Amino acid sequence: MVFEGNWSFGMQFKILVWALVLLGFFWFSIPVLAEAVCGNGTCEGPFLGGNENPCTCPLDCGSCAPSPYEVCHEYLPCEDTNNVCTVILVPSCCGNELCEGLEDFGNCPRDCDPETLDIELVSPVLDAPFARGQEGSFAVKLSSAGRELFDAQILATGFLEPFNYLMMASMGMELIWIIPMPIILQFRMMRVKESDWSQLPRPFEAR
Description:
By secondary structure, the protein is an alpha+beta fold. 14% of the residues lie in helices and 17% in strands. Among the domains are: 44-90, no CATH class; 118-199, no CATH class. The strands form three sheets. Strands 3, 4, 5 and 8 form a four-stranded antiparallel beta sheet that branches. Strands 1-2 form a two-stranded antiparallel ribbon. The longest helix has 25 residues, at 9-33.
């Protein structure tokens, strides 16, 4: 049977539409129908119709291993996880934001806060003389678990005005009360008033 006559515009349009539909079907079906090939530079996972992942094809998908920025993460062997890249948080590891095990502020300040404070009087030295009305200052060094604290502030209490926050003793100054963390290291100025001088024990005596 031979078709005679001219095609109508409608017939031509329908044929063009069907041709585009068939072309699109085959075009988008090629990645799905084709078998995934490891090493072609494309990680062909389930979305592309393949089964590649970091365990089955590290060449295309990257290795199943922690990056340099991951701390306290451990990746389980792929053979133990049915070829699924699985990561777990390592216990008792400095950097996992948990103060645990043998960790303390000294060996893992990233996870642990200071629990105890060690105080060292830096100045004034023992037996340092103070003249009547002289201004002076004191400084201390704080540490916890062997690690020095640079962001600490101390508050000393005492019995003498104007040193109601400072205690005097024959061996020097004794800090007897510490405010809770966080604290900021600072130098505290003090002034000996004439009315208080007779109450000050050694070494704060006039010379």
